[in-house]
Task: structure prediction
Amino acid sequence: MDWKPKTELGREVVEGKIKSIDEIIDRGLKIKEPEIVDMLLPDLGKEIIFMGGSPGKGGGIKRTSTRRTARMHKSGRRFNINACVIVGRPGYIGVGKASGREHVIAIEKATQQAKMNIIPIRRGCGSWECVCGKQHSIPFKIKGKAGSLTVELLPAPKGIGLCIGDEMKKIFRLAGIDDIWSRVFGDSRTRLSYTLAIIDAFRNLNKFKLSEQEEKALNKEELIEDNKAVPEKEETLEEMTQEILAEEILESETGSSETSETSE
Result:
């Protein structure tokens, strides 16, 4: 990569002193160059949130990748293009919004902004209906807010899927979350607020401080160990029942032989 860093953090990444994005997040450093994320997370995915719209032929809205706004001047109308981009990979997500005079410029600026806003995501298996222990959902219920819209995310068992708006599924697929329940309080048609509310919920997940035992309990690791021991208990119960049945059969046989001897 032909990149000359301009910040101290960028120079440390190029020199190899910092080798993971988690180290930057743990130290609370601010990323000011998107190339830092390109070096530490080279396999980032990218999705554009279709937050714009134009009138359709039969009414309604035809969604577009960017939103165009206009300002009136003496020389005429001046248009501005707004875009919202999500970047991520399993365990990480970033959102960026930017504006420009052209669609390509706005999307590129939003992509760079999303890389600099990347955050980790705490995943787990927090549903009482599931004991798989894998990181396919979130560990506990959480809320996020943006503007007048509030999103509540709830852990779901494996196989449920993403129970959320179709456009918002892009965020969870990039983040590596396969199963989720959700509730929305507000107008979910405002997709920018919807997206920012979900990202705020992910940030709130990271604010909770849990002990190792609580983390294991949320990830169902202890329950998995208990479930592995269940077959042994079932086998012992079966053996006990077989022994009891064998004793009853022996007692019945001995009792029948005794009665036959007395009759004789």
Q: What stands out?
A: Strands lie at 45-48, 52-55, 61-64, 66-73, 76-89, 92-100, 119-120, 142-146, 149-155, 180-185. Residues 221-235 have pLDDT under 50 and may be disordered. The first helix runs from residue 8 to 15. The longest strand covers residues 76-89.
